[in-house]
Amino acid sequence: MDVMDERHHEGGPAAGTAVGTGTGAGGPSAFRPESGGGSSTFRPEPGGASSLEVARAAIRLAISADREEERVLKEEYRRRGIRTAAVDHGGEYVLSIRKLIEKAVVAAKREGVVGESHLEEGAVAGAAHEAVSKFGEKALGLNIGGKMGLASQGEHVVVAFFANVGLLHLNEVGVSMAHRPVPRRPQGAGVGVPPKAESGPRWE
């Protein structure tokens, strides 16, 4: 997903049922026409949520307004077997890239989004790097500040980043996301450590 400005709106694909999902390389979903209606539906993958649902969870965490909204969303998705986390960050863009990747991996492990394996940590780091890098054209040489949302379920790990980009009050707004596949885990399971209670601000 490319960086987008705030003039975005929700919308679904053409009528059909998703019978496949994209991979980290960005492959499109395949659709099969429905036989009795014009509505568009997505069929979850066996044993868990689709990559679309996990991506939606990450984006909703990234655009959440405060800690209370985060808490409500985390609980909602926990009941659905989707693990989530959120990370705040602000600073000069180029210097922020490494910090954001590190924070994403730490938060993902702390909140149980991924386990302790090198493979899962690497998936988070790669997705975080891709999501942040998509701001490069707009943010190079400027400040960036916002929130990163992380979500995982089954074989899907998604990182989304929602942020202001600019100088003083002259801000642009953008959102980006990236997906990585990991070996499938049982629904609601596969977490290395239980979530820990947060204390204090998450800003560096």
Gyration radius, to the nearest Å? 17 Å
Please give the CATH architecture of the largest domain: 3-Layer(aba) Sandwich
Overall structural domain count: 2
Strand count, sense and barrel status of the largest sheet are:
4 strands, antiparallel
Q: Distance between termini?
A: 27 Å
Features:
single chain, 204 residues, alpha+beta, Hut operon positive regulatory protein HutP, 2 domains, 4-stranded antiparallel β-sheet, 3-stranded mixed β-sheet, 5 helices, 7 strands, 25% strand, disordered C terminus
Structure, described:
Helices cover 31% and strands 25% of the residues. It is an alpha+beta fold. The protein folds into two domains: 14-43, no CATH class; 51-181, Hut operon regulatory protein HutP (Hut operon positive regulatory protein HutP). The protein has a four-stranded antiparallel β-sheet with strand order 4-5-6-7, with helices on both faces. The protein has a three-stranded mixed β-sheet with strand order 2-1-3, with no helix packed on it. A hairpin with a 2-residue loop joins strand 6 (156-167) and strand 7. Helix 3 (93-110) packs antiparallel against helix 4 (118-133). The longest helix has 18 residues, at 93-110. The chain is globular. It starts with 16 loop residues before the first strand and ends in a 23-residue tail after the last strand. Mean pLDDT is 77; it is low at 1-46, 188-197 and 199-204.
